Amino acid sequence: xxxxxxxxxxxxxxAAFTAACERPLPSAVRVNxxxxxxxxxxxxxxxxxxxxxxVDWYPGLLKFxxxxxxTNWPYFHGWIYGQEEVSAVPAEVLDPEPGExxxxxCAAPGSKTSQLAALxxxxxxxxxxxxxxxRLSALRSNAERLGxxxxxxxxxxxxxxSLKPFDNAEYDRALVDVPCSCEGTIRKNPDALDDWEYxxxxxxxxxxxxxxxxxxxxxxxxxxxxxxxxxxxxxxxxAVVQHAxxxxxxxVVDFDLGLEHSPGLTEWxxxxxxxxxxxxxxxxxxxxxxxxxxxxxxxxxxx
Length: 303
Ligand SMILES: C[S@@+](CC[C@H](N)C(=O)[O-])C[C@H]1O[C@@H](n2cnc3c(N)ncnc32)[C@H](O)[C@@H]1O
What we know:
The chain is an alpha/beta fold. The chain has two domains: 2-25 and 86-300, Vaccinia Virus protein VP39 (Rossmann fold, 3-Layer(aba) Sandwich), CATH 3.40.50; 26-83, 2-Layer Sandwich (Alpha-Beta Plaits). Helix content is 28%, strand content 22%. It is built from nine helices and 15 strands. The chain has helices at 14-22, 38-47, 73-76, 89-94, 111-119, 133-145, 198-218, 238-247, 285-288; strands at 27-31, 53-54, 61-64, 80-82, 101-104, 125-130, 151-155, 171-177, 219-229, 250-253, 262-263, 267-268, 271-272, 281-283, 293-300. Strands 5, 6, 7, 8, 9, 10, 11, 14 and 15 form a nine-stranded mixed β-sheet that branches. A four-stranded antiparallel β-sheet has the order 2-3-1-4. α7 (198-218) crosses α8. The longest helix is centred in the C-terminal third of the chain and has 21 residues, at 198-218. The radius of gyration is 19 Å and the shape is globular. It starts with 13 loop residues before the first helix and ends with a strand. Residues 106-112, 129-132, 135, 157-159, 177, 179, 207, 211 line the site of S-adenosylmethionine.
């Protein structure tokens, strides 16, 4: 937990933050609206006497205070999907529409891919890319259980993503939910910080920068790119978006979020970031009793 001490100067109520990081994370599920409605899923859970608390910012996202999400028949039928509450934020911010072309650049095991497909009413296409074949198998099996049909899977390094198999057509939107140091998952994985190394943070930021740049390049002018991580490290968050601002044609834009959050940083460790980074959201565990997340929304601009 000492790893998190480096954030004392940027987190309001640091004592509440560290206390929340030590508490276990409540389970949550997202109703899969490709297979059912929120009302039918809730009725099925009620029939099994499963207790849940709906969250007010996302219809069909239910907190499970007592039960494990994967041990009931609505789960086996693909009516619900175990997804941490805060993990539903990036796809909601990307806000894809039916019929669009969307790239999910780091997609496995598919929590957000299947959420994107549901937000699109399973219409249009979601290209789901990941560099890890084993994790792509999990994505395929999740997509199958959830009845998702508008997903095309590619196994490649997202930094070199090719549009060739897709008629070279640029995307309307892209989600860049990158690999990271996972500091914000400490409540789910108490050993998440055991192997934390600053060199890893710096190293992984190179991959993050490459994937975000490719997403901006592959998205059409006026299109939207959402960048997200489940970590607090500014080197993997604001610094990565700053790099995209300096190297690609894009700008950071504001968005509404129904969860309590803090603004993105405009300075860290002597490095200044563009003032627009304040439009990004830092979601800390104590603010909504969730895990931690960083989300930034970019608009692709003219070259
Ligand atoms: C945070 S996880 C993604 C979680 C996923 N978006 C979801 O909601 O289920 C990051 C993923 O990035 C993948 N990855 C790592 N480096 C990559 C790269 N260079 N290109 C594409 N995927 C990569 C990892 O295999 C991992 O599955």
